[in-house]
């Protein structure tokens, strides 16, 4: 742990949206106060993605004495920022490093899954979300929500509703999960009535500012 803080560093978790944009949902794992790693976390949570946002992440990785978990979180956060500026190659390198350093942290898999969705590697994205769900840590609701969005994207509405219900059960106070669940139920009612699908789409960002699980997307710094 960095000597500047006794608090853990935080990974931002992002969720997919139907348009495959990214919405940031917060899933704390690590928090540095007054450090480049903490600035990186804040950029992943609130930034729109720019070289300026990425700079503190690189500074932290190159100059801070980070333990493996903090280093993994910082790679994951930088991966989110790279994805937002369209550099998915650099994003995947960071996400893969994060997984190698902290394979027990669910939010890291959630974040990598979002970049995999950007690359249309849906099977791999699903694998990462399933791994995050198996780990059942603080990012569990985000993982279920993101998997619901991915199932919905792939046309499996029943599976999407089951995951949406699980996310809402884990975090019943999340208005975004509740809205998305209502949207799925409305779609089912309309479909059962033999009508066209309603013109509604899920909230891009549950409980967070834009984009990351926000690019506004569901990912996680």
In short:
This protein is mostly helical and 221 residues long.
How would you explain this protein's 3D organization?
- It is a single chain.
- The chain has a single domain (11-202, 210-220), classed as Tetratricopeptide repeat domain (Serine Threonine Protein Phosphatase 5, Tetratricopeptide repeat, Alpha Horseshoe), CATH 1.25.40.10.
- It contains 9 helices and 3 strands, in the order E-E-H-H-H-H-H-H-H-H-H-E.
- The chain has helices at residues 36-46, 51-63, 68-84, 88-101, 106-118, 122-135, 140-153, 157-170, 175-192, and strands at 11-16, 22-27, 218-220.
- The chain is mainly α.
- The protein is elongated and about 60 Å long.
- It has a 3-stranded antiparallel sheet with strand order 2-1-3, with helices on both faces.
- Strand 1 and strand 2 form a beta hairpin.
- Mean pLDDT is 80; it is low at 1-8, 16-32 and 197-217.
